[in-house]
Design a protein that fits this description.
Blueprint: H1 19-50, H2 55-99, E1 105-111, E2 116-123, E3 126-133, H3 146-163, E4 167-173, E5 183-185, E6 188-192, H4 196-202, H5 209-230, H6 243-252
Helix pairs in contact: 1-2, 5-6
């Protein structure tokens, strides 16, 4: 199978909130429709060719029924879960986009090899990763699953390696009631979406506007580099970001 070629003009910082999840939903739905279509066409063909009492026809009917059972039991709940996740990311992304402007920069659906980071927020208060969860509540901070916290911490570390700037990981529930809003558990701050903007705006200033822009550039470069490596682009075909080390030097002296 031929790998997709690397396109240096592609901007990984311009992705829409929930783009990965929404693409997954469309792919699952399309594959489900194709599978059902193939089974239905095969059943009709065998019935007309060999008769309704033929073993091939009866077998295809059983396969069609089994396929429908699998879809109803496993595929549709999976599609619903991804669809709900995409909707949650879109909701939280919309809240963050309202903050973006003169002071804040937002990057959605970013990948640096630690899974997709739902949102990266860079502004006067620093750098934040936002992991969005969409299931309904109530949510007790003390009982948040350890795997979810490890995922948030892994995303934090990936951005810190790219920027050398301290990053605060946020776990945001788009719909759930949280018993202790803004509490921290194992280094991850947990909050409902409705309190996210207020929390960020109250944070003390730690980055100048120049540092905000430079940090965003470092994140953008890291996303380009990861995409190039993931697509197998050779070093000679990857764009050379000459400002990478220079930007780090300007920020951190």
């Amino acid at each position: 199978m031929q790998l997709a070629s690397y396109d240096p003009s592609y901007d990984p910082t311009a992705r829409a909130p929930g783009q990965h999840e929404r693409t997954t939903v469309r792919r699952l739905r399309m594959r489900t429709l194709v599978a059902l279509g193939i089974l239905a066409v095969a059943t009709t063909f065998l019935g007309r060719t060999f008769g309704l009492r033929n073993l091939w026809f009866l077998g295809s009917e059983i396969a069609l029924l089994a396929g429908m059972f699998v879809i109803l039991r496993y595929v549709l709940p999976l599609v619903e879960r991804h669809d709900r996740g995409a909707t949650g990311e879109e909701q939280v992304g919309g809240l963050l986009d309202e903050m973006a402007g003169e002071d804040w920069r937002v990057i959605h659906d970013a990948s640096l090899g630690q899974g997709n980071v739902d949102h990266i927020l860079i502004g006067p208060a620093g750098v934040f990763t936002v992991e969005t969860k969409s299931h309904p509540g109530p949510v007790r901070v003390a009982r948040v699953h350890g795997a979810t916290l490890r995922q948030a911490q892994a995303q934090r570390k990936a951005i810190e390696r790219a920027t050398h700037v301290p990053v605060e990981p946020l776990l945001v529930f788009s719909r759930a009631w949280v018993d202790k809003p803004l509490a921290r558990r194992k280094g991850v701050r947990v909050t409902p979406a409705r309190m996210l903007a207020g929390y960020l705006e109250r944070r003390p200033v730690t980055l100048s506007q120049e540092q905000v822009e430079q940090t965003r550039t470092l994140v953008a470069d890291a996303l380009h580099e990861h995409r190039a490596r993931a697509l197998g682009a050779s070093r000679s075909t990857r764009p050379v970001y000459r400002h990478w080390q220079a930007a780090k030097a300007r920020i951190f002296g």
